[in-house]
Amino acid sequence: MISKTMEEALNNQIRLEAYASQYYLAMASWCDKEGLEGAAEFLHFQSVEEKEHMMKIFHYLSEVDGFAVTPAIPQPPLEFDSVQEVFRLVYDHERKVTQSINDLVAICYKENDYNTLNFLQWYVEEQREEENQARTILDRIKLIGNGGQSLYFIDKEMKKFLAAAQAKEAADAADPGA
After folding, report:
1. Please, what are the domains in the chain?
2. Are 37 and 94 in contact (CB under 8 A)?
């Protein structure tokens, strides 16, 4: 049995993860429109991953006799000034998600909810990885610069990040205990 406070907080996290999925999908569409195929593919992958994060919480709430609420999601922005802005926004959003996960962990301690605390440990680790990845992408973009040819190299880098993310997902699926 889960407390109403924790149930509400987890439903808020569901909403945040669902928004992240849609936000990254909107960014992917913009990148595709701008001819940034690698960035678009990477953001499509991230969008699917965020939906999976949402669904894990959705299912967890059912397991603990809670009620998962299908979230209403506000329309994310559709236009961006640059690929640099897109990935700065990704980094900012990941930091927001990390803070939200930290807030959930704090509620677990306050309510002595060790089942949910255990469940959330995966998210704590995942957010460390997500923030690090977004920060690394921003660092690469800064190194590459802003010129016209820079977009080509940024897009190639995004394909490398996508390949690494896909390889990690495959390894995690092969060894779920890792």
Report:
1. 4-172 (1.20.1260.10)
2. no
Span 138-166, pLDDT tens digits: 998 888 877 777 877 787 888 888 888 88
> At how many degrees (to 10) do helices 114-144 and 37-63 cross?
170
Contacts 24+ apart (CB under 8 A), 63-68: 64/1, 64/2, 64/115, 64/116, 65/1, 65/2, 66/2, 66/6, 66/7, 66/10, 67/7, 68/10, 68/11, 68/14
pLDDT, tens digit (0-9, with 9 covering 90-100), for 1-15:
899 999 999 999 999
Mark 68-80 as b/e (b = at least 16 C-beta within 10 Å): beebeeeebeeeb
For 102, the token pair is 């930290």
The answer to whether the beta carbons of residues 74 and 19 sit under 8 Å apart is yes
Q: Residue 61: name the closest of 128, 145, 119, 142 by CA.
A: 119
Q: What is the distance of C-alpha 107 from the center of its chain? A: 21
pTM (2 decimals)? Answer: 0.88
Max Cα–Cα distance, the chain, nearest Å: 56
| Neighbouring C-beta atoms of residue 37, cutoff 10 Å | 14
Residue 123, Cβ neighbours under 10 Å: how many?
22
Token pair in block for residue 124: 């704590």
